[in-house]
Structure formats: C-alpha cells, structure tokens
Amino acid sequence: MLISIDTSILIHAERGDEATMAALEARSASGKIVVSSVALAEWLHGASAVKDAGRRVRARRFYDLVLSRIAVQPFTADDAIEFGRTCGELRAKGVTVDFADGLIACQALRLGVAVLTSNGSDFSKIPGLEVVDPKAKAPDVEDAEGQEG
C-alpha cells in the first residue's frame, strides 16, 4: 500500500524522534512512500523561519535527505478539485479542517492512499481517508511487496 507522509512526520523525523524515524524506515524500505508537495512546502516554510542558523542547516540537510529517499507527489488541479469539494461539504456541515492538512488529506484521498500522521485530529475528519499513526506497526516488507497498489 502506498502511503503519504504528513508534515507532522517530517517535523518529528527532522527533530530526531526515534519512533517516527522507525516508522519511516519501516515503510520506506518497500519504496511505497511519498510526500505531498504541500507537506514538503509546509515543513520547509516552518524550518526556514527558525532563527537558529545551526538548526536551519540541519533542516536543509534533512530536506536533501528526504528528497533523495522519498518521491514528492505534486499537487494537481484534480487534487484542488477534490479539496474544494470535500472540505467545502465539510464546512457546510460546520466541520473545519486545517487548510494545509485538508490539501494533503484530499490529495491522498484522490490518490487512494493512506496518510501517515501524528496529527490524526484533522485527517480523521475526511470521510474515506485511511489515517495511519506512526506508532502503529508497519506491514512487513514482504507483505508490502506482495501486494499490488
């Protein structure tokens, strides 16, 4: 199963959170992991605003590492249409979703992939979206390779 990683995962991984790193390693071993261009932009926006120069350098190195190991999924017009429809319908019902999380979630929904996030609160509001917690056990690599997807 292909899985898209959320900004929260990038933040925790860049900060060296061992559980998040293990979750990424386990899932990226099968090569079936992507990062939305929206999540990448959101993470880089925050990382670039940090005043500590050393942390900015570390973040840039992490960014380069992410790009060397994980495919970036561009946000498309079809993703924008899915976002407008899905989050608009939710808004009409009085349900609000963080803008960036909505973009990431609706892109994943359109692609038919799960989202790996430590911030399940907004993502769980999107009907039909599979949300995966990084603390959940990753599927075995053999199992992932044997599946079509």
Task: Please summarize what this structure is.
The chain is an alpha/beta fold. It is 58% helix and 10% strand.
Provide a descriptive summary of the structure in words.
The protein contains eight helices and five strands, in the order E-H-H-E-H-H-E-H-H-E-H-E-H. It is globular, with a radius of gyration of 15 Å. The longest helix has 17 residues, at 53-69. The protein has one domain (3-146): 3-Layer(aba) Sandwich (Rossmann fold). Strands 3-2-1-4-5 form a five-stranded parallel β-sheet. The relative contact order is 0.21. Helix 7 links the parallel strand 4 and strand 5 (131-132). It has helices spanning 7-14, 18-28, 37-48, 53-69, 77-92, 99-111, 120-123, 141-146; strands at residues 3-5, 33-36, 71-73, 114-116, 131-132. Helix 1 packs across helix 3, helix 3 runs antiparallel to helix 4 and helix 5 crosses helix 6. With 149 residues, the protein is α/β, with parallel strands linked by helices. The termini are close together.
SSE arrangement:
Elements: E1 3-5, H1 7-14, H2 18-28, E2 33-36, H3 37-48, H4 53-69, E3 71-73, H5 77-92, H6 99-111, E4 114-116, H7 120-123, E5 131-132, H8 141-146
Parallel strand pairs: 1-2, 1-4, 2-3, 4-5
Helix pairs in contact: 1-3, 3-4, 5-6
